[in-house]
Amino acid sequence: MASRVLDATSFYAGVPFSSQEQSFTTPLVFEEIKHIKKSHGAVETLIDLGRLHIIEPEKKFIDIILEKANQTGDLPSLSKEDVSVLALCIQIDGELVTDDYTVSNVGKHLDLKVIPIMTKGISKVLDSVYFCPACDKVLKKMSNCSICGSKLRKKSAERKPSSNPVHKKAIT
Q1: Do residues 75 and 66 touch, judged by C-beta distance below 8 A?
Q2: Whether 57 contacts 87, CB under 8 Å
Q3: 3-state secondary structure at position 137
Q4: What 3-state class would DSSP assign to 155?
Q5: Residue 116 exposed, middle or buried by CB count within 10 Å (0-12, 13-18, 19+)
Q6: I need a surface site. Which of 75, 95, 100, 163 has the fewest CB within 10 A?
Q7: For residue 168, is pLDDT > 70?
Q8: This protein's superkingdom (predicted)?
Q9: How many helices (H) and strands (E) does the chain have?
C-alpha cells in the first residue's frame, strides 16, 4: 500500500479522519492546520496512534521541487507548505492527496500519483507562462512587464517535451 502525503486541503476535507491508512505530512502543513481548534485534538490522536507521521523533507528533495516548479512556471504560485509536501512525496515515494491545482500540476510534472479529494483533478499537465495584458509580451517568470511596466498575469502554455519527470530511484 502506498504512503499518502497530505496537504492542508486534505485535513480541511477530513481525509485523515475518515481513513484507516497511514498518512504523512510536513511540519509546515501541521503548523498551517493547527488553528483548526475542534479537530486539533483529533490530529494529535492520529499522531499518537501512529496513523499520521510528520516528517521534515530533506533539502535535496526540496531543491528538486524548486527547480521543477521554476521550469514549469509554477514557482511563484507555490507556498512553502506546498513545496514541502511535494518534496516529502518524492522522498517517501508516496501518493499526493490534494485539490490544489498548482500542486497537482507540479506533482504530475514529476510523475507523482496525485489523488484529488473533492474535485475531479487536473485533466492536462501544463507549463505556465506570464503575460502582459497590456502589450501581450510573454515571460517565463513573474515580474512587471519590461516594456510597459504592467503587472503580469499567469496563463497555461503547452507542455514542453523537456519537462522530464523525476523518479526517486534516479535521485539516490
Answers
A1: yes
A2: yes
A3: coil
A4: strand
A5: middle
A6: 163
A7: no
A8: Archaea
A9: 6, 8
For position 158, what pLDDT does the model report? Answer: 54
> What pTM did the predictor assign?
0.72
Check if the beta carbon of residue 58 is closer than 8 Å to that of residue 87.
yes
Residue 156 C-alpha cell reads as: 497555461
**Residue 139 confidence class, pLDDT cut points 50, 70, 90:** low
Indicate the SS3 state at residue 172.
coil
Q: How confident is the model at residue 135 (pLDDT cuts 50, 70, 90)?
A: confident
**CA of 6: how far to CAs of 60, 87, 91, 155, 172, in Å?**
20, 12, 14, 27, 23
- Cell numbers for 168, please give them: 526517486
Structural domains of the chain sorted by starting position, each given as residue range(s) with its CATH number in brackets: 4-120 (3.40.50.1010), 127-157 (no CATH)
Grid cell at residue 139 = 515571460
Please list the alpha-helical segments (H only) found in 22-152.
27-33, 37-48, 59-72, 80-91, 101-109
Whose cell is 485533466? That residue is 123
Q: Residue 70: what are its φ and ψ, rounded to 5°? A: -65, -40
- CA–CA distance, 124 with 74 (Å, rounded to integer): 14
